[in-house]
Every structure is written in C-alpha cells, then in structure tokens.
C-alpha cells in the first residue's frame, strides 16, 4: 500500500510539473523520444557497470520518462495510469496461461512458443515480418527478422551454411565497384554476422558492444604508454603503434586472468 501511495505521489509531482514548469509543460510525446533513448542506454550502462547507486538513479530517470508519457496521454484523453497498469496486468496473465491457466509449459522453449502464439492472435499483421519493430538497433532488428524466417523453416540446416554465406558476401564486397554496391554488400555481411550469432546463441548487438569496449580499453592503454614516452599518436609510426597495441592486449589479458 505504501508503494502505491509513493507512486501516486510521484505521479502528482509529474502532473504539477506539466502545469507549472516552463520546460515540462512544453514537452510532447515526440519531443521526449530522444530522452527515452538516452535514458535507456544510460540504464543499460549502469546495469553493465554493476553499480547499485547508478542503477537506482537511472531506473528513476527511466521511470520519469514513463510517467511523463502517461501524463501527456492522460491530458489528451487517450488513457490514464490505471488504464496502462490494467492493460499490462491483463496481458501478463493472458500470456502466462501456464501460471494463471491450465496450459502446461515446463521448459523455456514451451513458454516462448505459447507467448508467440498468443501474441499472433492479439496482433494481426498482413505479413509475418510486420511484427518486428523497425526502430530497433540494426543488429537486433536483423536477429528478430532471422528468427521469424527460422520459425517457418527458411534457414540453413547447419552452421556451415552460414559460414559459406559469409565467405560469399565477403567476396562480393571485394568485387563491388560503386559506393551503393559496397554499402549493400557490407550490409549483407553484417546481416549474416547477426545470423551467425543466432546459430551459436550469441546476441550480435551485445557481442559488438563488448568488442567496442575492448578496443577502447586497449586504445586508452596505448595512449597512456605514449604519454609516458612524451609522445602522442601523431609522433609514433604504424609499427610503433602496432607494438603498443600488442603490449596493451597482453596487459589487459593478464588483468583479466587475475
């Protein structure tokens, strides 16, 4: 009951800000989209860092965006907070018939199969691919598209088919002449790379992010070593940079072991 009172109190603050704050009162659903995206990524970063305080802070900021969207729609007469919560409650119960009904689902695969079947009945689409959100990050979008194709049997039987396709796409990129052709072939390579992730149960978006972070750590360490020599990147030859890169690689590898 206390939690409900606190949520209502927080929502009352949002309503007051919408009426009296010059900035908050001018915001629209659309104008807040960049903040929703930013707060989502900041929350992800806090989760990956593992900082309890950062997670608490970013979850609050994320909740703020949710409350603002509800308040704006309430002002328009579209729906209320009660409508949103009731809709979520009904959906969770409806999509978990193995918990709230008499359907049997003892494995994760059975649960997801039921979830997908119920979702299909709820949302009618002209095409199977219409169910995928086109605003997802590209690699995540590719993953979902490929999983739909896989479910209807349009996929390779083994991972070797994916490897062969990757080699084929790389060769096509090598042969590409125009910028448009190169862009298309590079896109095909990334698409296949995402699909390779599906076969080995690795999320390509997450894998790429980790590779980005690894590169930055090594690059920053290279920069530290150059500073110790009284140099910057422009002062070093490519051979020197390669040597520093290998040193940074070994240092971080040893740190990971310890």
From TrEMBL:
CDD domains the UniProt entry points to: NTP-PPase_MazG_Cterm (cd11529), NTP-PPase_MazG_Nterm (cd11528)
Keyword annotations from UniProtKB, A to Z: Hydrolase
InterPro entries: MazG-like_dom (IPR004518), NTP-PPase_MazG-like_C (IPR048011), NTP-PPase_MazG-like_N (IPR048015), NTP_PyrPHydrolase_MazG (IPR011551)
Domain NTP pyrophosphohydrolase MazG-like: 27-100, 165-218
Coiled-coil ranges from the UniProt annotation: none
GO BP term, example: dGTP catabolic process
The organism's place on the tree of life at top rank: Bacteria
This protein's record includes keyword Hydrolase: yes
Cited Pfam families: MazG (PF03819)
Annotated signal peptide: none
Record GO terms (molecular function): nucleoside triphosphate diphosphatase activity
Designated name of the protein: Nucleoside triphosphate pyrophosphohydrolase
């Amino acid at each position: 009951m206390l939690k409900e009172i606190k949520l209502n109190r927080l929502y009352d603050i949002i309503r007051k800000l919408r009426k009296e704050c010059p900035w908050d009162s001018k915001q629209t659903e659309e104008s807040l989209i960049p903040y929703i995206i930013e707060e989502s990524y900041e929350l992800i970063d806090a989760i990956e860092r593992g900082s309890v305080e950062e997670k608490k802070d970013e979850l609050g900021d994320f909740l703020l965006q949710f409350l603002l969207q509800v308040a704006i729609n309430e002002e328009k007469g579209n729906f209320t907070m009660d409508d949103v919560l009731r809709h979520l409650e009904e959906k969770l119960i409806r999509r978990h018939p193995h918990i709230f009904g008499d359907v049997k689902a003892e494995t994760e695969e059975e649960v997801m199969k039921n979830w997908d079947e119920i979702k299909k009945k709820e949302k009618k689409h002209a095409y199977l691919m219409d169910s995928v959100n086109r605003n997802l990050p590209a690699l995540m979008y590719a993953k979902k598209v490929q999983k739909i194709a896989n479910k209807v049997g349009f996929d390779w039987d083994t991972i070797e088919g994916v490897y062969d396709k990757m080699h084929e796409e790389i060769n096509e990129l090598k042969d590409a002449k125009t910028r448009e052709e190169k862009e298309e072939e590079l896109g095909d390579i990334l698409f296949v790379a995402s699909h390779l992730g599906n076969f080995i149960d690795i999320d390509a978006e997450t894998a790429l992010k980790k590779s980005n972070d690894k590169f930055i750590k090594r690059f920053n360490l290279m920069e530290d070593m150059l500073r110790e020599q009284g140099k910057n990147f422009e002062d070093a030859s490519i051979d020197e940079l390669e040597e520093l890169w290998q040193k940074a690689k070994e240092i971080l590898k040893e740190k990971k072991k310890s």
